Amino acid sequence: MGCTSCATGANGQPKGCKNNGTCGTDGCNKLTVFDWLSNMSLPSEMKPFNAVEVRFKNGRKHFYQNPDGISLSIGDVVATETSPGHDIGVVTLTGELVRVQMKKKKESTKVEALPKIYRKANQKDIDIWTKYREKEPEVQKRSREIAMQLGLKMKISDIEFQGDGSKAIFYYTAEERVDFRQLIKDLARAFGTRIEMKQVGFRQEAARLGGIGSCGRELCCSTWLTDFRSVNTAAARYQQLSLNPLKLAGQCGKLKCCLNYELDTYLEALNEFPKNDIKLKTEKGNAVCQKIDIFKGLIWYSYIEQGMNWHELTVENANKIIEINKKGKKVASLEEYVVEAKTTPKELFSNVVGQDSLTRFDQPKGKRQNKKKRRNKKRGRSKNRNTNNNA
């Protein structure tokens, strides 16, 4: 997605293409949105939407109005209105797509009610912003020490200074309710700034910090996922996954969000399968379901008295037997409906990469020895000729 040559460097700025987020695709940033309306012109009677989307630290985004009509483009650093003071952010969206994003996030599209953009950030604003961003790791370490001294059962996961340094937001996670009134006083005394505490969930914490998932890619919550749907173990059961908490849990300690991605497809496929608790009635006895394969559309049944002998049936044949049973009849046996397995000869080895023998460049020892003997014979003959000529 976006610029593949970019990587996140210090202060969240991209390194690699050195375009500082203005590489056109905006793929250097977290939770980025591609502006697919940028090359389309508006109708003549329609005025451009006078609002922009601004990104702050770790993907936090807000919408602002542009009352002075400043010419803004993706990647511009701007000073925005906050209470108190001002904040510094990076423009991520402009134009008509901002209206679409506001409707998607169920926010009011009244531009007059939005906070303002003061100006494009000058060098002084950027220097102050960078100065406080560099302090954040040290402040986070010190704040954790203060929380431990007060005996609070909480984890301060991230710090975010406002662009002018007048306020600091402390993001924390906690299992229970925490009384941090004394903590705010100690933090304000230690750092000399206004303190705001904001509790986040474990999924939101993982989204802010980022990381690499078990699939080898960046976490979905930190790159593109914005809404966190509830995930339960039923999603794993429907997909025939082993209920191993170590494999099903993500870096946030909760069930992985990707368990919901294919759940609807599995539920649609399972509508054709009979329920597992339905017994097939035959003259040889009742049969129960032992296993299903959603991809191949197969079900394995076994007689209650012969639990070790499984019989492989297709979904169509199993439904046929159930329909016959509903009419009060029994089939002769399961063997009449068993799928005939097609046996294919197994190859013990197949050259899948097209490689030749590893010793194809090695010459046999016998040929080397024969060449040496021929060379020695030629040398001996030449010596004999020279001695005869001298005589």
Task: Explain what the structure shows.
- With 391 residues, the chain is an alpha+beta fold.
- The chain folds into 4 domains: 7-121, no CATH class; 128-205, GMP Synthetase, Chain A, domain 3 (2-Layer Sandwich); 230-271, no CATH class; 280-337, no CATH class.
- It has 10 helices and 14 strands.
- It has helices spanning 96-104, 123-149, 181-191, 202-209, 220-223, 233-238, 245-248, 263-270, 315-326, 365-390, and strands spanning 7-8, 14-15, 51-55, 61-65, 77-81, 86-94, 117-120, 155-161, 167-173, 194-199, 280-282, 285-293, 298-303, 311-314.
- Strands 4-3-6-5-7 form a 5-stranded antiparallel β-sheet. A 4-stranded antiparallel β-sheet has the order 11-12-13-14, with helices on one face. Strands 8-9-10 form a 3-stranded mixed β-sheet, sandwiched between helices.
- Helix 2 crosses helix 3.
- The termini are far apart.
- The mean pLDDT is 83.
Task: Please summarize what this structure is.
Helix content is 29%, strand content 19%.
Describe the protein's topology.
Layout: E1 7-8, E2 14-15, E3 51-55, E4 61-65, E5 77-81, E6 86-94, H1 96-104, E7 117-120, H2 123-149, E8 155-161, E9 167-173, H3 181-191, E10 194-199, H4 202-209, H5 220-223, H6 233-238, H7 245-248, H8 263-270, E11 280-282, E12 285-293, E13 298-303, E14 311-314, H9 315-326, H10 365-390
Parallel strand pairs: 9-10
Antiparallel strand pairs: 1-2, 3-4, 3-6, 5-6, 5-7, 8-9, 11-12, 12-13, 13-14
Helix pairs in contact: 2-3
